[in-house]
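Predict the holo structure. Ligand: 2-oxoglutaric acid.
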Amino acid sequence: MSAGSRAPENGIAADVDRERFLRDGYLVVPEVIDPARLAEVRRAYETLVERQRAVWAAQRGPGDPPGGAWETARQPRLHLSRELGAQVDASCAAAVEVWAGDRLRAVAGRMLGVEDAGATELMMMCSPVRDRGPANWHRDIHPIDTAPLRGYVDDIVENGPAYIQWNIPLYDDDVLWVMPGTHVRANTDRENRLLLEDDRRPLPGAVQTHLRGGDGVAYITPILHWGSNYSAKLRRTVHGGFSPFALREADPFVPYLQPAAQEIFRGWQRACAVKKDRTEAALRAALAGDDAAYDRALAALRPGAAEKGKMLLTVFLTKAALFIRLRKRPGLRSTVPERVARSSDAPHPITLNWGPQFAERFTAQEADLLWRRFAPLERRLNGDREGFMPGFQAERMRHSFVEMPAGFGVAELTAAWS
Ligand SMILES: O=C(O)CCC(=O)C(=O)O
Ligand SMILES: [Fe+2]
């Protein structure tokens, strides 16, 4: 095993049907939280809800109700990977420790087929104070700053998922619906027609999940899914994912965790540092115009990946090169769509965007050359006219939603480097 943490014994994940998970794109897994710890985990999250509510109340704007975002949000969310992480102490460490649970890690590792997957984006979804009704059906992807759907699909079919998302309710929860199989296909014409008519109602063939407190549902983005009813009924659902590209670094809560959980988070931090270095190595190989070194760097980033996996990484690296250039040349921000400029300000690790600080590894001159290396692929991804398809986290824009560039892969891109 490399820099990751030690994987738990696979026996505790033996009931997980990986074939079915890969076919349907989702799987309900009983008791991913140890039932003996559920009450403690609930108490820990309620402490954090109180602390977050105090922050929101203090941050409320002039026209806001006393509770601020807690009262105005359709789905109030705790982000333990962001500022709230600094408010975790020994009294609520169990909220973080669920992510280090042996069974959850073993199941996630088995689903991903890797040993160094870490937890990323530690969140909790809460019920709103008043009924908000259904959200809209969507896939958790936004192609303009990540990749077209086909890029993900081809990689999943070739290599399995590189990221799985979890909903782990602390109380019974049947809000989430999924459309089986859509993690490896585009919308049908019929789905597009129905979604354009009304994207807040059940789609034919879709499945409602029914989870008991402590169970989890794992799903493979870009699966089409739906938050069917954001009602005031108590909802406290842990939300986040596992990936070999998890972003874990200065987590302020680590010293408060139990020793075994501390060790696991430190292992994830080491694995993250390795992934960042490998990302830099790929970009430096591109800078050097060394296609063989570039290919080796891709293989190190995603061991076992063949053509499709390497192409998806190359699309992510194209976006990374663009973000790095925008950080080094802020004057260029006005030349790209707003969404792209914003994406250069925040990390999205599962698509190799390690955040604005990562750009500091490069000079402005390197950023310019890097962009010349990858711009030919970005031009093809942009295409020559605007597109739109319902069910993405995206408006109409000039970027491919589904298809990858025809007849242009890693070999074609790197051929122009020498
Ligand atoms: O509320 C849920 O279970 C789904 C949330 C979701 O799909 C999202 O925020 O992207
Ligand atoms: Fe979603």
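The longest helix spans residues 259-287. The chain has a mean pLDDT of 96.
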